[in-house]
Amino acid sequence: AEKRVALVKGDGVGPEVIDGALSVLEAAGADLELVPVELGYGRWKRTGAAMADEDLELIKTCHCVLFGAITTPPDPEYRSVLLALRKGLDLYANIRPFSAPGLDFVIVRENTEGMYSGVEKLDEEEATTLRVITSRGSLRIAERACAIASKRGRLTIVHKSNVLKSDTLFLRICRETARRWDLPFDDMLVDAAGYNLVMNPKRFDVIVTTNLFGDILSDVAAGVVGGLGLCPSANLGDRYALFEPIHGSAPDIAGRGIANPIGAIRSAAMMLEWFGEAEKARMIEEAVGWAVASGIATPDLGGCSSTEEVTEAVAKRISV
Ligand code: NAI
Ligand code: MG
């Protein structure tokens, strides 16, 4: 088919928010072939494996993945499914747009190396995690960030090169790339970036940073724009892509029909944009903005609507 999408609903609120996203995709008239793939804790409990090699092969027959959230199984041997997908599909760029009234910025996080390279050792006396930064990894994330910044305006390189030698390489390559793109740019130490995200978020446009820093700063940013439940993300490689809300499986509220579907709905809109359907993506974003502004909101935003009510309101707004 034209647009073949692996559908991973996952655990906890994953299926609830993905069902919301699917209703909204349908309302927007998206023509997709959906390929369900069961991954995660539920699958692990049934079969002893959260994901198998065949799953990755099946996913590779699709163009991209729409992903809910999965629960980390209570097993010390467990390897993260998301890390395996990011590695297996080489999804090196994690794009996280954050918007709220008067606020609009993007965090571009390197997704395959840095502190999450997986080079680790754990002994009784000592534990080490190796932070690997390569010029190839830095260049490809810098290129992605510059491509986004060239359409928006400005790049801020976030690092800790005053302490970490590995970040002097990352900073140098990002600077060279921004100069090559002829972009306005600056750089900032990660601790200052955390402070400024809270105190002065308007100063940011596009942030590019390494894996762990991007992980932490994007949760800070989610808090700044109103909550985890609102925020979408895209994991992009040169061939494949995976779209997911940035929140986890939220076991504390799962099964109660009150999970905020907006992060998942917006992730679906990012997927349509990636497929070249910018107009449909824009319609969904408009409808979501309208619902939030109208106070049609789940309890995490202080509202009293259910997942279904928010989904229906957004879907109806698109169909009008
Ligand atoms: P979490 O994001 O699941 O939940 C944090 C808090 O935010 C909770 O109070 C939860 O109720 C709330 N929340 C999250 N999503 C929401 C939504 N859509 N609507 C309303 N409220 C929402 O993070 P937590 O609790 O640290 O992790 C729970 C499980 O999820 C763990 O097993 C963790 O490993 C997994 N996880 C999975 C991720 C993924 O699949 N991408 C990402 C982060 C965590
Ligand atoms: Mg995280």
TrEMBL record:
Residues 4-314 form the Isopropylmalate dehydrogenase-like domain. Keywords: Oxidoreductase. It comes from the Archaea. One of its GO terms (biological process) is tricarboxylic acid cycle. The keyword Oxidoreductase applies. GO terms for molecular function: isocitrate dehydrogenase (NAD+) activity; magnesium ion binding; NAD binding. InterPro entries: IsoCit/isopropylmalate_DH_CS, IsoPropMal-DH-like_dom. The keyword Oxidoreductase applies. Belongs to the isocitrate and isopropylmalate dehydrogenases family. This is Isopropylmalate/isohomocitrate dehydrogenase. It comes from Methanothrix harundinacea (strain 6Ac).
